[in-house]
Amino acid sequence: MEKPTRRSARPSPVRVAGDSMSPTLPAGALVAVFPVRGAPHLGAVVVVRRPDGTEHLKRVAATPGDRFERPGGDGFVLGPDEFAVVGDNLGASTDSRHYGAVRRGDIVAIARACYWPPRCWKLLRVTPRPRRAGRGTRARGRARGR
Questions:
Q1: Which residue in 11, 56, 63, 81 has the most C-beta neighbors within 10 A?
Q2: What is the mean pLDDT of residues 65-74?
């Protein structure tokens, strides 16, 4: 993906450039992307706009408040509006391990399906992150035997 594209509410096609997302999205594949509504979930494949104006497909690897580890042991905690993104093919990807966190405003679209070539057809499902221990749990009923 080279030039930024204005996103509408309709799906728009994006051609995968390079091998950074293989084998999930091979080079040359066409992907349907939609504008992001709200914050993307952990594991979502998103379109990230870089400061030089280029757009890249990457996977969300960490969300606000998470600690993101870089090779070599150094890491950082993401701020309230920051995400870490990586390519599925770590050896061929330039991503947050190299340039740091991306702001929510730089995530311009979310990929929902790969549709071309036909042998690569798949839905790009996103499973919301599991609840952390202690969140959203309530004791139900009363203790018995008292």
A1: 56
A2: 87
